[in-house]
Amino acid sequence: MIPTFVYVASTLKDLIEDEVNKGESKIILTPYISRATLDIIGLVGKKKSAFFYMDFTKFLTPKK
What is the domain count for the chain? Predict the structure, then answer.
């Protein structure tokens, strides 16, 4: 489970870093955290239970 958290946290850091590099001075983190939470549930669930067998990785990409 820890590698999943590390993977999602790294992806989240990269997305926020991209926003900062674009010059964004105000970044709302709530949507990113919500997507990261869904991502973790989906990725960990794939390994533990058929109930959560879902790929939520698309939620980590920022809305356009």
Answer: 1
pLDDT tens digits, 19-29: 899 998 899 99
- The span from the CA of 2 to the CA of 43, in Å, is 11
10 Å CB burial of residue 51 (0-12, 13-18, 19+) is exposed
What is the spatial distance between Cα 51 and Cα 53, in angstroms, rounded to a whole number?
A: 6
**What one-character-per-residue DSSP string does 23-58 give?**
T-S----HHHHHHHHHHHHHHHHHHH-STT----GG
Range of the domain at 10: 2-60
pTM for the predicted model, two decimal places: 0.71
